[in-house]
Amino acid sequence: MIDSNSIRKNLEKLSFPRLSGTKEENLAFNIIKKDIDELNLPFSIQEFVFSTFYSRVYPRIAFSLAFWLLFIIFLNIEGYFKQITLISVGIAFVILFLFVKNPERLEFGRVLPSQNLVVKYPSKKKENTSKGILLFAHLDSKGQRLSISIRIWTIRIWLTSYVIAMIVIILYYIIFLQIVSWLYIIGAIFVGINFFTTFLFMINTTNNKSYGALDNASGVVSVLELLNYYLNPELRLKNYNLWFVFTGAEECGTMGIRHFCNECGDLDKTKSIIINFDSIGKSLAYFSSSINPNKNINLYNTFQKSAEKLNLRFHYKKSSFGIRSDGLYLKSQGFRGFGFGDLEIYKYVHSVNDTIDKVDTNLLKKLCIFITDILKEVDDHILDEFSC
Asked: How many degrees, rounded to 5, is the angle at CA 15 between CA 350 and CA 112?
């Protein structure tokens, strides 16, 4: 049975700062490992190391170089200085891109340890080892100087100001050079805005002060509760193996899920479904590129009907630009499925305000029951539709 008291108890155990690669993240891992040990379940551990360069240093360098490129073009300095600068920035971007192309293999700068924990339940039929339903949640938390809401808007304003400034500069120097000098002033304004947002990127630092109740103890306890539910062999699915995956270092460039994908063996992406739980508070947002109101409409309606039976309300949302998550990375690797979060809690996430009082454990209970209903439907009736 899905139990809200159990969810609450686990939430309380896991709500403490646990930055990627720290002893606190390892403590959270050991708490989950101990719980699984007590259930006498077999599990595997995927140990890995990761560099903080990709997540914490590389973005600052990239945004700074891009601003410098914009600024040099805006000044329109004649001579070798401009040419050398443009070539140097171009070369730097190419080197950076090649350097971080596979960030999970990067061992430059500060290198830290982390690990994933994977529990696998076989299907009742035990015929197809390549087909699975994978339930994910990440163990680590992260605090930052700027809230996630501010960072999202900073990225949007940076991109908008960059594009507008570049267009205005091109218009001024190529088309209207002798006609409307006020275009230069407009360009200067947007270059200034871009400089300010670049400055915000530079001062944003990472810390270990967030309790991470929302992000992502809420997801971890949901996956853990479902793991306990399917402990009963009679409740296992007939056609799918069940994977319960607790990833590390998600907040440092989705490193855990990258290593998981490199080690998931003969898992067939085209026949598997991923479900990601990440940052759930007191309301529910549903994310999917595979099942949404405009695609697989019958399956989406099945989801809605199951939710209505539980008086559970969720709304389909597109992921906010600039957000990284295990679910989005899996999508980029060809996996299909869906995930749950809460877009209304971004003002708390990655801050000291990410505390247990922001999480509705009754909502998590309803979500877990909903998942069990949906997985039964998928297992019994609608495999073909999902695979379209």
From this structure: 65
pLDDT at 293 over 80: no
Q: Which domain holds residue 152?
A: 56-102+147-203
Amino acid at 141: S
- Look at the chain and report how many structural domains it folds into: 2
Q: Which amino acid is at 224?
A: L
Residues 116, 86 share a domain? no
Q: Which two tokens stand for residue 126?
A: 């035990």
Using DSSP, state whether 350 is helix, strand or coil.
coil
pLDDT digits (tens, 9 = 90+) for 39-69: 999 999 999 999 999 999 999 999 999 999 9
d(CA 363, CA 385): 28
Do 287 and 352 lie in a common domain? yes
Separation between Cα atoms, residue 96 and residue 149, nearest integer Å: 27
Query: Do 121 and 168 fall within a single domain?
Result: no
Residues 129 and 256 occupy one common structural domain: yes
Dihedral Cα 79, 81, 82, 88, nearest 10 deg? 140
Question: What is the C-alpha to C-alpha distance for residues 256 and 47, in angstroms, rounded to an integer?
Answer: 9
How many other CB atoms are found less than 10 A from the CB of residue 178? 6
DSSP codes, 46-87: EEEEEESIIIIIHHHHHHHHHHHHHHHHHHT--SHHHHHHHH
Tokens of 123: 């299907």
